[in-house]
Design a protein that fits this description.
40% helix, elongated, Sporulation protein YtfJ, single chain, 3 helices, four-stranded antiparallel β-sheet, alpha+beta, Spore_YtfJ
């Protein structure tokens, strides 16, 4: 396998691993709250190939890490932005500050989408004859 193919394969794997679903974890219902974990990712990788006539070699290397950044807490009984908080899980840094700043605008939209999707699932289950009781 040449360096280009190794590089493409490494990128495809990183693309598979790092997406919105892994940065924003699955919502967890906790009583009258929904908690959404937020993680930070860091990755590095390299690929190379070389050789001479009749001899050749190629290789890749990668490393990465995941760390918790914050929890998004959505109060079910409080409507609007007042019902949404971003709770840092470590010393506030630039990422936490950015999430907090963006969260004030984005989180109400995320809540709306989650509610719509939850409503769609319930309607689909009822249409299939599997109502949750």
């Amino acid at each position: 396998m040449d360096a280009d193919n190794l590089f493409e394969k490494a990128l495809a794997e990183i693309d598979r691993l790092v997406n919105a679903g892994t940065v924003m974890g699955d919502p967890v219902e906790m009583g009258d709250r929904i908690v959404v974990p937020v993680a930070g990712f860091g990755f590095g990788f390299g690929a190379g190939a070389g050789g001479s006539e009749g001899n050749g070699g190629a290789g890749t290397g990668a490393g990465g890490g995941v760390s918790p950044v914050a929890l998004i807490v959505i109060e079910k009984n409080v409507s609007g932005p007042e019902g949404i908080r971003v709770v840092p899980v470590r010393k506030p840094g630039p990422i936490t500050e950015a999430i907090t700043a963006v969260g004030e605008d984005v989180l109400p939209k995320v809540v709306e989408i989650i509610k719509k999707e939850m409503g769609k699932e319930e309607m689909e289950e009822k249409a299939e004859g599997n109502p949750e009781d």
